[in-house]
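Hello forum,

I keep getting stuck at the same step: I have a sequence, I want structure tokens, and every attempt I make locally crashes halfway through. Rather than fight my setup again tonight, could one of you with a working pipeline run this one for me? It's a single chain of 507 residues.
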Amino acid sequence: MQLTERNARPAPEVTGAATFSRAAFWIAAGVAALGAALRLLHLGSAYDLFVDEVVYDRLGRSMAESTVPMLHGGPFFLHPPGFFVLDALWQGAFPHSDDVWTLTYRARALNALLGGLSVALAFLLVRRVGGLLAGAVAALLLLVEPFVLRQNGRVLLETATVFWLLLGLVLLVVLSDRFDRGLRGRGERLLAVAGGLTLGLAVCSKDVAVFFVVIPLGLAAWRRWVLDRRTLAVVLTSAAAPYLVYLGVVAANGLFETFFTQKFRGVLRLIGVEKSTGFNREGAPSLSGRLLDELAHFWTTYLLMGLGLVAAVVLLRSTDRLHKLLGAFGAATVGYLGYAFAFGTIEEHFAYYLVVPAALTTATAGAALAHRARDRRVRAVLLVALGAVVAWNAGVYVSIRAEVDNGYQRIDQWLAANAGGAPVGVFTETGVWGIEHHGAELLTSVEQAERNGIRYIVTVPLLTEQGYTSFTEEQVDQLENRGRVVFTFTGATNGEMRVVELPPAVR
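Reply #2:
Ran it on my machine without issues. Output:
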């Protein structure tokens, strides 16, 4: 199947619906507000604590006191500091707090706002590339997409990374429109620089974004899809600037050797030479099993990812230059995730890089198909399918928001009220961070619990079964059988979580 341009590319003198209008920006503002509101609702109880959340927020807080991210008393260079700087600025707008839950939920609110803005940017981008119908479909798909909502509801790096990518693409499309109208002055040069800097902020938030910037723009320059090569060179040069500033700060602090060591290890993880995290590491739970476990909530996500792959190929074969650019963006994310799945380090939240572009490409290709279909029944089928998916996703949204899934916070509150400062042992890194008020100790053996007089242990059988804890199921059972369960909480993320009081003999 090959798409043809629904309308010819705008001639220089053409303005109006094909370009960004004031009405489109007002609609986008409404979409952003709705998207943010949906994400902010029950922000603290919709998804239980994930270990990276507290780590990333601590790195953000360290940026308020240091020129480089710091963790455990040393510099942290595994990920670039883009999000950490943003988080530091965001937290600085609120009264000081040392409470882990206050800080985590503030950082979640930041990502919720970025998620809502991302939906609006997706609308603007796809509306310009594929028309108003396509833009509306993209916004509807992303407003209540279950996986996207979970990602936007946690303190993870992908939300900010994709936000900057989308903003950069919107700026480049605006620039392309201005070039088509014969405008090539100082404002356009500044717009090219701004677009490049914005894409550079994406790379400065997560290194892998370099693939999503260089591949589409490299193809655009090679095939002369959008903009001219000189302008694209300005964009790519500007995109390198934020990371070069980062490297300059590292060098000025005399930390380049440490940076190189950590970053080299990160590259080894990326290409799969070192597999210390993710589903491809030795002893990790099965990715296919994880996908099946979450099928009830995320089947529409899996469907969207599949459609996005097909749509990216269709758009690459289009005669419309902006279609090709969007298709290349989608294909770049598919290529990265495909390699990570087969050979590299693959973690569940990486799929965010695939789901958001899939919504853009699917909406654009689907709207083009609906426009070209002469049989009204085809349009009706597409409309019904879209309505069914959005309705299902809305139902999942309501069910998740109606449940309470904040087990670590509930356990932290119970210990604060009942433990009296007694030693607490946990089996996960999340537990160490989440109940840090009580100096939770990460246990690696039964003997350690006995030697250190641990009175309470926090067990999460599901995580132990999946291999995410420092204990085997037999070791956890051994300790649990010696004590008594004094508190339980059951949530969607971790299943049943228990606080077990150990007898004095064990202590």
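The two ends are 70 Å apart (CA to CA). If your local run keeps crashing, start a new thread with the error log.
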